[in-house]
Write a structure and sequence with these properties.
Length: about 425
């Protein structure tokens, strides 16, 4: 009815700085979608243990579906139910994006060229269970089954024996069904931008107290992008005198080892670069501080989204111009343990810093195609460099290749302790290619 819609619209128009429990959060998201139907798409990607919807609001010029050439970005907050700042600032980010579209040229271009997915809460049950706000740990950190969702994903380094929770499974399915390129996971309890890997072994250099991914340079850039645009994170003072983070960033493993984390899962199995943003020393601060948290993070949240346009993107097609899904496309010298592959539309996206790279496209069973590209910083133009590949001799669709969920890096260490890490990766890639064939 008209009155109901008007009520929803007025809800969207007035977002206050206070905590929004499940009903209010849902009402707000539905109100925004009702007011901006062509710019937003609201859907639930699953349900929590207690049956609450896991809402995601998608924003962009084509909010309902993926468009070729437009990268997918996501923010996820409140994975630990008692870490609440991210949950609220994502609602304010939504408010800022929809009200600035068509008025602010930068936000307009950002939304025209990016599909942005925002999940204010991954653990609604934990949030509702946190009855008394506290700066420190509470039981609300966990989901209803008492599981820590950020220890619940498959791990690339060791067997994670935790039973996969409904919230985790929903996110894993979501990652599988979208072509996410860049992501951040919003937490609380510290003030730092933390990046992959969270776990490690000798192959990734963890014996030296730092677990290095093949894209370490990109991850450092991503973490610094956020910290340097944040009001104070870049100062690196941390939350007490014991802990300091130079420039406000840290390698996850260097900070503390973590098994089954979401950011490593995104990177290894989702082809999506994710960092973890710790946004407040106090996990569940008083509501009267929320406006300051929004001001402190607003610029950083926008600048970070722009980084989805770093690097190179393109399509791999056959002799008839049809897309080739599951072709491997990677930059030479940085192979992923689970090779990065094209999606159903034959698209690939590789986040790379400006510089010269050789891009290697491989359709299993055919000769690889190499192209040298000079990558500029295109984030200001809201489009990565475009580089397509056409395989004139191919006229079929390669079989769907999925990476096994076993701890992939364990296989590398077993191969031979004497061989250098780079060789380990190439040995595994060859093995994987054989499996996929």
């Amino acid at each position: 009815d008209v009155v109901g819609i008007l009520c929803l619209v007025s809800v969207a128009a007035t977002l206050d700085f206070k905590y929004h429990h499940a009903e209010k959060l849902e009402k707000y998201l539905k109100g925004v979608h009702a007011e901006y139907p062509s710019l937003t798409h609201l859907h639930s990607i699953g349900r929590s243990v207690e049956g609450r919807d896991l809402w995601v609001l998608v924003l962009g010029r084509f909010p309902t579906h993926h468009k070729i050439g437009i990268p997918e970005f996501k923010y996820v907050a409140n994975m630990h139910g008692d870490e609440t700042v991210g949950r609220e600032i994502l609602l304010h980010l939504i408010d800022f994006l929809v009200t600035s579209y068509g008025r602010d040229p930068v936000i307009t271009r950002l939304l025209n060229n990016t599909r942005i997915h925002i999940m204010p809460t991954m653990n609604p049950d934990g949030f509702e269970a946190t009855k008394v706000p506290d700066c420190y740990y509470t039981r609300g950190r966990y989901n209803k089954n008492g599981e820590d969702l950020n220890r619940n994903f498959p791990d690339a380094f060791e067997n994670n024996n935790a039973s996969i929770q409904p919230e985790t499974q929903a996110v894993m399915n979501w990652i599988k069904n979208e072509t996410f390129v860049l992501s951040a996971n919003l937490h609380g309890g510290a003030l730092v931008a933390s990046y992959t890997f969270d776990n490690g072994n000798s192959v990734t250099g963890s014996s030296k107290g730092y677990s290095r991914s093949p894209d370490d340079d990109v991850f450092i850039h991503l973490a610094k992008t956020y910290s340097s645009h944040h009001a104070s994170m870049y100062k690196g003072t941390g939350c007490d005198n014991r802990q300091t983070f130079p420039e406000g960033i840290t390698n996850g493993y260097s900070w503390y080892q973590l098994e089954g984390g979401m950011q490593d899962y995104n990177y290894v199995w989702g082809q999506c670069f994710e960092i973890t943003l710790e946004l407040s020393c106090c996990k569940y601060p008083p509501a009267d501080q929320l406006e300051k948290f929004w001001r402190d993070n607003k610029v950083a949240l926008i600048e970070y989204i722009k980084q989805v346009h770093l690097g190179v993107k393109g399509q791999v097609t056959d002799k008839n111009g049809n897309p080739i899904p599951n072709a491997i496309v990677e930059a030479k010298g940085r192979p992923h343990i689970c090779p990065y592959r094209t999606n159903e539309q034959g698209e690939y996206y590789l986040l790379l810093l400006p510089g010269t790279y050789v891009i290697n496209a491989t359709v299993p069973g055919f000769k690889s195609m190499l192209k040298t590209v000079e990558i500029p910083d295109n984030t200001g133009n809201f489009s990565a460099l475009k580089q397509d590949f056409s395989f004139s001799e191919v006229s079929f669709r390669p079989r769907v290749a999925s990476c096994p969920k076993i701890p992939l890096y364990q296989e590398l260490t077993r191969a031979s302790a004497a061989v250098k890490p780079t060789l380990h990766v190439s040995v595994l890639m060859t093995a994987l290619l054989l499996i996929f064939k």
